[in-house]
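Why do we bother with holo predictions? Because pocket geometry can differ from the apo form. Keep that in mind while you read this record for zinc ion.
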Amino acid sequence: MTGAGHPSGQTMRIVTCNGAPPMMKHLTIAMLGLATITGCEHVATPTAKEPTAATQPTQPTAAVEAVEAVGVTGATDYKSFTDAQWKQRLTPGQYYILRQEGTEPPFRNAYHDNKITGDYHCAADDTLLFHSTEKYDSHTGWPSFWQPATAKSVKDVPDADGSRVEVECATCHGHLGHVFTDGPQPTGLRYCMNSGAMKFVPK
Ligand SMILES: [Zn+2]
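The structure, written out:
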């Protein structure tokens, strides 16, 4: 269902983190509540339904079919996705967060107070990101976790100015949120996520 034009090698995104530096060394002591609100009024849809657009061109290509078939394996070359392809794959709220590094409003998002047992997946590619067993109430209004589901779930990318550490989906490099060092033990980390970048799958 993800219609697309022609795949091109162009990518609008620059990934600034190529290695895998120890995250702790790059973390700056963060003050509570410094996550900025950008003023966007988008509240991402909390549904687990796959994003489909009602007005998409019906011109399936082999590349699109491959994307659908590959799914969560990570073999899809998401870096080659054009903006148009992302807009067709994601809802406006998901696109704003995942592709434009947007931040949803605190407390007015789907999962900040979700206490149901289950897993949180990337809204773009279904990568497993977090378990509910590592979720805690940070009182920030955003869903918070003290560690990712696996070592390969997310990627930490320090901001250019060193003020914060961005958290991306390791598969599609979509923006998920930020990680801070004021979290609970045993890690002391607070993965401050946007609900709209994730899909919750109850167990
Ligand atoms: Zn992803």
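Strands lie at 118-122, 128-131, 135-136, 144-145, 154-158, 165-169, 175-180, 190-193, 198-202.
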